[in-house]
Amino acid sequence: MGQLQMQVDLAVPRAAVDALLAARPTTWLRRFLLLATVSTVPGTGPGWYRLGPVAGDDPTVVPLTWRPRAGPRTMDLFRGALEVSGDAARSTIRLRGTATGGAPETNELVLARLLDLIATALVEARGPTGS
Question: What is the pTM of this model?
Answer without folding.
Answer: 0.90
